[in-house]
Amino acid sequence: MKEIVFENVSKIYDNGGIGLENASFAVEKGEFVFVVGKSGSGKSTLLRLVSAQMPKSEGTITVGGVCLSAIPKGKLPLFRRQFGIMERELGLLPDLDVRGNISLAMYATEQPFSRIKKRVTQTMATLGISHCAKQYPNQLSGGEAARVMLARALVINPRILVIDEPTANLDPDASWDMMCLLNELNRMGVTMIVASHSRELVTIMKKRVITLVSGVVVADEKNSIYSSKAMDVFAEKRVYNERRQYQNLRGGLPN
Ligand SMILES: Nc1ncnc2c1ncn2[C@@H]1O[C@H](COP(=O)(O)OP(=O)(O)OP(=O)(O)O)[C@@H](O)[C@H]1O
Description:
Helix content is 37%, strand content 24%. It is an alpha/beta fold. The structure holds adenosine-5'-triphosphate. Keywords: ATP-binding, Nucleotide-binding.
């Protein structure tokens, strides 16, 4: 069953910047997909479009069979609850301990306090951070803080986890632990869309990899590796084509 479908989706920001250009792909329920590309290639844009955090400019996005443009604005917050989102910009609140930070994500779901407490305890145990429950963010290691951010995304029991750079600023051991954890969550049935800069980890994981260059999907392969060569070849071709178009417009190519 198709969980996410993008059909000719583009995102053009208010200042004219292109975030994503004519992207088409589908993600199956329970799939694990990496999104890779150089800085500014459109990874975060794609993730934010998937999780209905901003509107697309063109094309059609369908999640769980629901076309995002058909959802009334007032119903979007409820719709977004099927996504767990982990991204750098959503930092931990410094004045709340770990349990508080994770619990906060559940308050909007309006569940009874006892249920929230049980679910938070369970999530901390799953992610191996029970021992940090009473610690504050500035008392956590990088790896622990990343797990708390993941716990905050996971605690609402999402169908889809959308994760931007899960291993940013982590040492190799903590990065590997994080990837294993994501793999484990995926095995439990959660659909995963993960943007990553980590060449080594993406290659080792052998998952589906969507590669972006300047907002364009240039490769989409199963059991794939992070190939900077594919990016470079495409970037060179694109620059060459743009030069040709420009020179044609100006009256023909020079010798
Ligand atoms: N809010 C915004 N307003 C205008 N342009 C934006 C905005 N957000 C992103 N962009 C532009 O869209 C393009 C894609 O940016 P995006 O953040 O999606 O890339 P990225 O691959 O996630 O980069 P990074 O790896 O550095 O996080 C870039 O050219 C960027 O400048």
